Amino acid sequence: MICEKCDKENSDENKHCGECGYRLRRSVERHIASALLYRRRGGPGGLGHAVIEMNEALKVDPDDAEANYYMGKMMFDSGFVEGALKYYKKAIEVVPEWADAYFAIGVAYYRLCNIDNAIDAYKKAIDLNPEYISAYYFAGIAYYHKGDIDKAIQHFNEVVNRDPKYAIANYHLGRAYTKKDHMKEAIKAFENVIAVNPDDADTYFHLGFSYAKSGMVDKAIEMLEKAISLNPKDENSRELLMNLMA
């Protein structure tokens, strides 16, 4: 690394400049790179060292957007969600057009059960990046839990229109259509899940339920029997199957 005082090139292992003796400070970029390496290693030790390195980066430049963003992610991973929000918000103060930072803010607000603020953050991420599939998906989840099923369906469709094999989005799309009693659309969504995850017992139950509500009893029985074969402890499927066969 280069000494800030005399511009002498030094080895990365040196703590003091070999030319003038000045204490060397690593650049923000080097601290961030080290932090991310420790984070990838995982475990309490890896995360602890990652936080130390990121703190050093913020000592060098408290306004560095990348350092604030990644510190936020580390705080979130450690369960300090409100602390994470502080760093994410600092990142967008510096780089206000950063879609990933807005998405991270949305995830943090959702974890805090602040659904409206989560939705606002997801919408901002989508405004900045109209192809942000994860933002559409998580916005759909937030709208679903808020009870705005029409908006949830709209956002889940944004996902599956871009990626028809996005199984979890199709699953929640099917659940949302079921809430609206749109069984034809629900069946299609659940069938799309099965096409990707053919051993998903829970989806077979919902598919069986949708067929039953549509009056397609034979198909419903077939799906429920498949659900039970995959999960013999599935009491919901057993109960519905018994009612259909009574």
Secondary structure elements and their pairing?
Layout: H1 28-41, H2 43-60, H3 65-77, H4 81-94, H5 99-111, H6 115-128, H7 133-146, H8 149-162, H9 167-179, H10 183-196, H11 201-213, H12 217-230, H13 235-245
Rg (C-alpha, Å): 25 Å
Percent of residues in beta strands:
under 5%
General form: elongated
Architecture (CATH level 2) name of the domain at 62-130: Alpha Horseshoe
CATH first level of the domain at 62-130: Mainly Alpha
User: Averaging pLDDT over every residue, what do you get?
Assistant: 92
CATH H-level superfamily of the domain at 62-130 = Tetratricopeptide repeat domain
Explain this structure.
This protein is mainly alpha-helical and 246 residues long. It has a domain at 62-130: Serine Threonine Protein Phosphatase 5, Tetratricopeptide repeat (Alpha Horseshoe), CATH 1.25.40.10. It contains 13 helices and no strands. The longest helix is centred in the N-terminal third of the chain and has 18 residues, at 43-60. The radius of gyration is 25 Å and the shape is elongated. It starts with 27 loop residues before the first helix and ends with a helix.
